[in-house]
Recover the amino acids of this structure.
């Protein structure tokens, strides 16, 4: 089916499969359509159907609260075409997607699923063909055994790789996390669409980095730090990583983070913030034997970052990822205290 | 032109925003320290209620924390990533009261006269 998209910058055409999301079809054809979550929650991919018919796969998606259905508005991520269509998209389309980052569909297999805390697991997905992505990007995962698609950020940073690594936290009544945690998913088939997302790291920007993550929001930060280490970025630039969890039972990635700091002890600082612990010096002692080069603090991660970062915000680019409340508190802190302009803050809000 | 009282100037703390209804019209009033500004109550991007999502700095920069669109609250002009200016009402302070002039309700294009309706624009 032929889809025409009209925007302030002109119009573009692309082909779309019969059961394919209009958003995904546009993106895989290199069109920089507006989106954020790509899974029906944020409302960013709102568009109006001015010609043709569409069908919404998930008519009750939370993001539908942003659209005016009486004006034939849709969420492109949830819409399927029922023939040729013309859409109008508000706002600007921001630039082009680099050719080697055009998202596409992959078939994959789940491998090496391993628990790293009582409710957090890592798993790999082996792809049927290699892909490259930017550090901080995510993909959509879909299993035939669970309804719907889920977005997960890659932990690893590799080019032309067949392996993606993910971190998943068990969610109350989370169907996908139940599928991962309660079943033997080793070798199970999974569909992948990506890479997606603009909260990405590019060494040529040449700024100091501040990464503030809550829980499994650390995933994309691990890729950013990995890319930074691979590109010797921290030889000349500072990196400040703040990783927030609840308690000692919830920490993970300490060994990996410690290894990164070992490479650049002068310029890379990692602080673990534990919101439900109260004895900061006790924590430092507790972890000192194995992780001398990591710092430990008590409190919410945005508050810990606020205290430790005062006067260090020179030439800074900030990345934030985690649960909505944590991201909102952190954004407020970065605007009001750090006085970072919005253009120097990239964030990924789990919804 | 009809000036109407919104509140006492002291009712709004420095560098904060408050939502009011004046004759059934919702507005948000900002106290930016050196003065006051009255704006349409929603973010022109995705209709976030700015009295909740807005962060007002001492420098007079207003940020919507939803997607980090920013404006200079003194003028309503765009800063950084914003793609639309704020719609502002006339406002003044007299005898300790904040007064605004509402000739008609200000609404962004996504509402009454949606730009997506504008065939000439897209053709």
């Amino acid at each position: 089916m032929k889809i025409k998209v009209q925007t302030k910058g002109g119009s573009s055409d692309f082909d779309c499969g019969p059961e394919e999301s209009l958003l995904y079809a546009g993106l895989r054809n290199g069109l920089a359509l507006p989106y954020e979550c790509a899974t029906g929650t944020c409302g960013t991919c709102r568009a109006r159907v001015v010609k043709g018919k569409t069908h919404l796969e998930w008519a009750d998606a939370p993001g539908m609260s942003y659209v005016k259905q009486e004006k034939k508005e849709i969420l492109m991520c949830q819409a399927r075409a029922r023939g040729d269509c013309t859409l109008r998209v508000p706002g600007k389309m921001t630039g082009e997607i680099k050719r080697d980052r055009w998202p596409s569909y992959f078939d994959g297999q789940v491998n090496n699923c391993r628990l790293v805390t009582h409710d957090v697991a890592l798993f790999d997905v082996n792809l049927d063909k290699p892909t490259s992505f930017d550090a901080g990007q995510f993909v959509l995962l879909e299993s035939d055994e669970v309804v719907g698609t889920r977005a997960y950020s890659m932990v690893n940073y590799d080019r032309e790789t067949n392996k993606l690594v993910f971190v998943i936290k068990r969610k109350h009544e989370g169907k996908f996390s139940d599928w991962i945690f309660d079943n033997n998913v080793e070798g199970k088939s999974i569909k992948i669409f990506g890479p997606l997302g603009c909260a990405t790291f590019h060494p040529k920007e040449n700024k100091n980095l501040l990464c503030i993550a809550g829980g499994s929001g650390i995933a994309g930060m691990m890729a950013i730090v990995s890319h930074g280490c691979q590109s010797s970025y921290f030889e000349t630039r500072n990196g400040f990583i703040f990783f927030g969890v609840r308690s000692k039972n919830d920490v993970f990635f300490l060994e990996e983070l410690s290894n990164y700091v070992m490479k650049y002890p002068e310029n890379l600082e990692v602080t673990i913030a534990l919101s439900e612990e109260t004895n900061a010096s006790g924590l430092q002692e507790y972890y000192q034997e194995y992780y001398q080069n990591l710092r430990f603090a008590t409190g919410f991660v945005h508050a810990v970052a606020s205290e430790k970062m005062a006067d260090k915000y020179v030439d800074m680019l900030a990345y934030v990822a985690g649960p909505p409340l944590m991201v909102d508190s952190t954004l407020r802190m970065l605007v009001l205290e750090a006085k970072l302009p919005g253009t120097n803050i990239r964030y990924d809000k789990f919804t | 032109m009809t000036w109407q009282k919104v509140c006492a100037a002291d009712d709004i703390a420095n560098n904060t925003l408050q939502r009011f209804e004046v004759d059934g019209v919702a507005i948000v009033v900002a106290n930016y320290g050196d003065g006051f500004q009255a704006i349409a109550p929603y973010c022109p991007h995705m209709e976030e209620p700015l009295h909740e999502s807005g962060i007002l700095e001492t420098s007079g920069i207003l940020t919507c924390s939803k997607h980090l669109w920013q404006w200079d609250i003194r003028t309503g002009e765009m800063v950084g990533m914003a793609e639309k200016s704020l719609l502002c009402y006339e406002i003044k302070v007299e005898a300790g009261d904040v007064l605004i002039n509402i000739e008609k309700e200000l609404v962004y294009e996504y509402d009454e006269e949606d730009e997506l309706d504008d065939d000439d624009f897209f053709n």
